[in-house]
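Q: My labmate handed me this sequence with no annotations at all. I'd like to see what the chain might look like in three dimensions before we decide whether it's worth expressing. Could you predict it?
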Amino acid sequence: MPPCRQTPPDQRSAVGGVRTPLTYDAGKKIKGRKRHILTDTEGNLVHGIIHTADIQDRDGAPLLLAEIIHRFPWLRHLFADGGYAGDKLREALRCIGKWTIEIIKRSDVAKGFEVLPRRWVVERTLAWLSRNRRLAKDFEQTIASASAWLFVASVQLFTRRIARHCNSSE
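A: Here is what I predict for the chain of 170 residues:
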């Protein structure tokens, strides 16, 4: 009888497909994946994308814009974090033509923590979404399943908000 050979872990067939490689962003010290989300002024998730961590923020913004341009043609003005400033985002907006963007930057003279206008809405939404167990850590094998859980958590959050409003009006 021939000796048993152990198949290396990367060659085994996994249920659900191939795992997305985990990468590292040295600037933010993040291993794994990054989330880019677009919210309305109330903090409701409009759209979001997840990608590997080695893509910088300013390179991830055009990816998000490319996905929402046809889904939400009525959008006209966007607010973005200072990390999204750069030529790639401006070039992507120039191709769209109708949209304007306002970059919200932190003041150079401010010391310590400072609440930035408009940005806190997105940060609050990310905090609400991170309360979901499946989004608290990166448990998912693929980017597709991580994206699906992002939208499931958003639907759950929005449903609870609507239910709370309906119950309080009775």
